[in-house]
Amino acid sequence: MLSAAQDLPEDPALLKAMIADLQAQNAKLAATVRAHDLMAQALRLRIAKLKKQVFGKSSEKIEREIEQLELALEDILVATAQSVAAPHEADDDETPTPAASTRGTFRRPRVAPDTPRERKELDPGSACPDCGGELRLVGEDVSEIIEMITAKLKVIEVARPKKSCRCCEKMVQVPAPSRPIPGSMAGSGLLAHVLVSKFDDHLPLYRQNEILARMGVDIPRSTLADWCGRAMRTLQPLIERIETAVLASDIIHADDTPIRVLDHARRAKGLGKGVKQGRIWAYVCDQRPWVGPAPPGVVFRFAPNWKAEHVQDHLRKAGGILQADAYKGYAKLYEPGVDGEPRFREAACFAHLRRDFHDIWKANKSPIAREALDRIGQLYDIEREIVGKPADVRHALRQEHSKPKLEAFRAWAEQQLTRIPTKSDLASAFRYGLGRWHAFCLFVDDGRVAIDNNAAERAVRPIGLGRRNWLFAGADAGAETLARAMTIIESAKMNSLDPQAYIADVLDRIHDHKINRLDELLPWNWAPLSAPQALAA
Fold first, then answer.
1. Contacts of 20 (CB under 8 A, 6+ apart)
2. Cα gap 414→451, rounded to integer Å
3. Integer Cα distance of 439 and 326 in angstroms
4. Long-range Cβ contact pairs of 434-441 (< 8 A, separation 24 or more)
5. Rounded CA gap, 44 and 41, in Å?
6. Mean pLDDT over residues 85-113, rounded?
7. What count of other Cβ atoms lies within 10 Å of the Cβ of residue 61?
8. Per-residue pLDDT tens digits for 164-187
9. Distance CA 141, CA 77 (A)
10. What's the predicted TM-score (pTM) here?
11. Any bridge partners for residue 253, and if so which?
């Protein structure tokens, strides 16, 4: 700054001209920042409104719009930061302060407690630079910088010396360690990185090939594909254990989402673009809201179409309570069996019912729809207070507080049906709720049941995010592999595990486990090996 001041002209007229020019530039930048800020606020408001109606028939379209709006919001925030944050405007020891108009949208980055730390001490020495006197420590200023350590690949050479006994001539050599993929050069860490990058971060293999090339290794796309397939075959017994455990739960959340699949038979016949629409179902066990004994997990299953037979096959060995939407394929599961009892009791989703009234209120500001939203909101207010409480406590509080409100809502809904046109959207919304009233009331009679099916809605969201990147699966087999990979990855995440670290450790140890010890590697039982244990293994 001092050298810049020395370069200023001494002529007052020139200085005034420079000041006027800087003021004009500042006004222009301020106007740009204000415009960007208004656009950012509008985008955030639009995104917030869309997220409230993300569930339902139009959810796929809404999610795509949210994706596009969030990308636009990122571009505006980058442009704003570029306009107002020049490198010289902030002290090197301080975190740059955003513009006042956008300060509320920024927060300080959070770093995990176990993140490695490196201390760099800038010591001024022991002698005063002015008088040469001895310096003494009176304190220190500490600032933090988050730095990225570039990933690197390494080659591990496994040498096994052969030795012979001088007495009996016996040859001695340590057995070769097992590999995640027998006969392959792929280590468990690299395989886990490729699998998680493809199925969780949605990076196709050709992009991973480019990334790995920048790291100094050329792994052909065909080799990466072979590694993925063989690694998934190695993980298959563990995935089956996860499926068995999840589907053994007596309360299951279910939902499905479409997935485009290449159909080579249709392409050969010249039908359309050779793409068909399959479905991926998610079946979730999540007893955390009522402190249940079963660990959380999710099972994904692929089907080439939307026929009811697939759901019935997926749940053929399951029973209890099924919380899902009104898809007709579930109807047969609720029918009484030979003993007169249904295999599943139906639990409905208040989020779906609320969405219908929200759409109506948004379209024409109907006061009846607004009151319906308020009444449902009162039920959700109670739910927020009982999250994490045992099932018996939830049941008692719901009987005391939720049941009267639910009965009042039904009486009010039946009364409204007599006052509104029978073919209106509002009447359809009321009939949807009243026609399945027993399913909507089950959460009041059973403290284990959730008020909505958001657990399953959250589970299928990663599939929707992935579609933006890979667009379609290459074949039915590819979609089935995707479902199996998502089962182990999302189950790990539900148990607060890093899926890459988890899969790497499992691949490293799975061949050394007998089949009856696989339960030790399940996400909810997994404990990573410590350094001494790893050396011993």
1. none
2. 21
3. 10
4. 434/410, 436/326, 436/346, 436/348, 437/410, 438/346, 439/346, 439/347, 439/348, 440/348, 440/350, 440/353, 440/406, 441/406
5. 5
6. 55
7. 10
8. 999 998 999 999 888 999 888 999
9. 31
10. 0.79
11. 284, 323
